[in-house]
Structure formats: C-alpha cells, structure tokens
Design a protein that fits this description.
Blueprint (H helix, E strand, L loop, with lengths): L11 E16 L12 E2 L6 E16 L8 E15 L5 E12 L2 H10 L4 E3 L3 E5 L2 E6 L4 E6 L16 H4 L8 E7 L2 E9 L5 E2 L1 E7 H5 L6 E15 L3 E4 L4
Parallel strand pairs: 5-6, 5-10
Antiparallel strand pairs: 1-3, 1-14, 2-4, 3-4, 4-5, 7-8, 8-9, 9-13, 10-11, 11-14, 11-15, 12-14
Length: 246
C-alpha cells in the first residue's frame, strides 16, 4: 500500500449525530512512552496529562464535496492523547495524537486503514438510548459506558483536577489538529473544522474501557464528560511538515 494514501490525501466531511467525550487525567510522566518526538503532552499545573475517549455516531462520511448519500455511516470509538507541537514557524499548535480507533463496520476499518494512520479495528458496539440516558457497550473490547444528560447544572467529577468548568472546557475537545509522525523527519498535520460545537456536561454513571486498562498507567481519573449533538464537521487535506531536528 502506498504510504501517500495513508496521509489523508483529500478533505473529508461528515455529520456527527452525537459525540460523547470522556477525558481522563493521567500523571504526565506516564504519557511519555506513548508519544513520539517532537510531540509533547498537553498538561495542567505541570502535573496532569490527558487522554480522551470519544464515541461518535458518524453519518455520511465522504470526500468533501460529494453528496451525502455517497457517504458511510458508522460508530467510532477513538483513544487520543492531548498534545502540543511547535511548527517550523515557531507557532505552538494544540491537538491530538491517536492511539487507536474502533468502529462497528468492517468497511470503515478497511477504508480507515487505507487513508489514515489511525489504527482502526472492528468491534461489536451496542447503543441504547432512552430519552436523556445513553448506554454504549462492547463485549469484545470490554467497554461499558452509561451517561445521563442532567436537567440542571452538575458539578465536575469528584476526581477531576480542574477547579471549575471554565478551565475544564479547554480540555473538552476536539482540539484543532491531529498529528502523526510518519518518519524521522516528517510530521503529518490534519486540521479539523467544525461549527456548533457546544459541549454539554453529562453525568457518568458507569465506565470501563479495556484498552485504557492495557496502557502503562498506574491510575487515571475522570476529568470531564460531555455530549455534543448535530455537528457538521470536516477535515482538511493532510499537510506534511519536514522537521529539521527531532
């Protein structure tokens, strides 16, 4: 397979029926082994780094400009570290480094692994929605999530390192860029563009993610949880930056 195909060779668009994002705080040192140079973990108070689990009901994913009926609809679960990258112009970019992506459709696994570096695999994903209650689970991947959309304002999770929602929302995702190291001297940068991104806090009643339990963390703490609904989204064509020294 040509490596160029995996470098996001064209712009892509989709519609997110909903996106649920849980962000976990991890001692920053425990993220070092998971990140390639020159990416650095985004931190809070120089103590905590962050890994997010996003669950997205994706509709009509297709090359940008194509009609919606030609797109693919699927469910996505992604595991992403919040990172920073300083580009050649000296500008600091905030973004995500993707560890793993899961989907409920084999076709999406195939296409995703042809056109991205996002490490797609197929798993069983079950969704149950009852008014403001959502449950997502996977037997194969040991995933359990139950959330409730509250009627009134709720507090941050007790385990969150953030003092208030204002600071917390800086880590509500998605960050503008996704980064992939494709060689010793090259970084692939993909910019996401969205509108109507208004995250609403949710109450997490239960969570378990088998993939997180396999990572080299002594512990991780729920920092926030949000749902966002009805979002037009697109990703620009990938840009390769040649890095002088990594």
């Amino acid at each position: 397979m040509s490596l160029n195909l995996k470098n996001h060779p064209f712009a892509v668009e989709a519609f997110f029926k909903y996106s649920i994002v849980l962000t976990f705080a991890v001692p920053k040192e425990q993220l070092y082994s998971l990140l390639p140079t020159p990416l650095r973990a985004e931190t809070y108070n120089d103590q905590w780094g962050f890994i997010a689990v996003s669950m997205v009901d994706t509709q009509h994913l297709r090359p940008k400009g194509f009609p919606a009926f030609m797109g693919n609809s699927f469910f996505l679960i992604g595991y992403r570290i919040f990172v920073q990258y300083t580009n050649q112009k000296g500008k600091r970019l905030r973004g995500l480094y993707i560890l793993k992506s899961q989907t409920n459709k084999k076709k999406m696994e195939l296409l995703g692994n042809i056109f991205t570096h996002y490490n797609y695999s197929t798993t069983d994903i079950i969704q149950i929605q009852q008014e403001k209650f959502i449950r997502i689970s996977s037997n194969q991947s040991d995933i359990k999530l139950s959330i409730q959309e509250p009627e009134t304002t709720i507090s941050l999770p007790a385990s969150s390192p953030f003092p208030d929602w204002n600071i917390d929302r800086r880590y509500a995702g998605p960050l503008p860029f996704t980064f992939t190291k494709i060689s010793d001297k090259q970084i692939l940068i993909i910019e996401g563009v969205r509108s109507k991104w208004i995250p609403q806090p949710v109450e997490v009643r239960e969570y378990s993610f088998g993939f997180l339990d396999q990572l080299p963390f002594s512990n991780y703490h729920l920092a926030n949880a949000f749902i966002i609904r009805n979002i037009p989204y697109h990703w620009k064509k990938g840009v390769i930056e040649h890095v002088k020294s990594l």
